[in-house]
Amino acid sequence: MTVSPGGTATTTLTVRNDGDIVEAYTLEVAGDCAAWTTVEPARVSLYPGTSETVTLTFAPPRSHEVRAGETPLAVRVLPAERPESVVVPESTVTVEPFHELRTELEPRRRRGWLRARFRTAVQNKGNTPVDVVLAGRQDGEDLTLGFTPDKKRLEPGESAEVALKVRARKLIWFGEPVTWPFEVLATEGAEAAEGAEGGTEKDAEPKAVATAPVDDGQPGGAEPLPGEFAQIPVLPKWLLIVLAALLALLLAWFALVRPAVQSTAKQAGAKAAQEETER
């Protein structure tokens, strides 16, 4: 019997009274399937030599707590009159795998002269282990994006944090700030290597709000997370204005004030010499 998480599947079980008295049977599901398996009807009364078929319905939730693979199934059939004759037929239910990655980039935007640090959180919400590969993508070659580590194996329900370092190709010495958009991809297995653009670095440090769940029944499904690095100039605009004002004052000094001072000094010197001569 195979069932998909979030779906349902049914099977039947036949209960037969081989005794010589009328018997009531209570049916209870045991094992790991019990939480999401029901029996209808859960109690049957049978005359000797008769039988009845009951229906077992399996409805595992779409949760990482329900692991993919074979799950033991047991149904306890308990007679009311002769409880010592209890029987427990056993079987297995195969739960199909599903894949779901939940990723988060914090913060969504950072400012800096040359580099910035972000934090990428990844959680495996699926019911089977996955190898998650992180990659960065950016239009052009203005940024390099590096993750540490860039690969992580996650068990169902497990979370991990990965450091992301974003670095611009060159400094902006003066002018207006420039915003460089980029995307973070969290993909399962080797498929993540395709589409990774904008360069990679092996060294990265933490620091990292935008969430984007990735819900895909097949491996490799991923939804990119947008981020931005706002690169600011090394010399701010106000500093350029101050330097320009200082330069203008300096030029004014040499062009206007200094000649006037020199002329006044010469006149004062000449007057003093004349007075000395008259004496």
3D architecture notes:
The protein is an alpha+beta fold and 279 residues long. It folds into two domains: 2-95, Immunoglobulins (Immunoglobulin-like), CATH 2.60.40; 99-231, Immunoglobulin-like (Sandwich), CATH 2.60.40.2310. The protein has one helix and 19 strands. It has one helix at 237-278; strands at 2-3, 9-16, 23-30, 37-40, 43-46, 51-58, 69-79, 90-95, 99-106, 109-112, 115-124, 130-137, 143-148, 151-154, 159-168, 178-188, 200-201, 210-216, 225-231. The strands form four sheets. Strands 17-13-15-11-9-18 form a six-stranded mixed beta sheet, with no helix packed on it. It has a five-stranded mixed beta sheet with strand order 1-8-7-3-5, with no helix packed on it. A five-stranded mixed beta sheet has the order 10-19-16-12-14, with no helix packed on it. The longest helix has 42 residues, at 237-278. It is rod-shaped and about 160 Å long. Residues 190-217 have low confidence and may be disordered.
Rounded to an integer, what's the Rg over CA atoms? 39 Å
Q: What do we call the CATH topology of the largest domain?
A: Immunoglobulin-like
> What is the overall silhouette?
rod-shaped
Structural category is alpha+beta
Number of strands: 19
The ordered H/E elements are EEEEEEEEEEEEEEEEEEEH
Number of domains: 2
Please give the largest β-sheet: 6 strands, mixed
Unreliable spans are 190-217
Short summary of the structure?
The chain has 279 residues and is an alpha+beta fold.
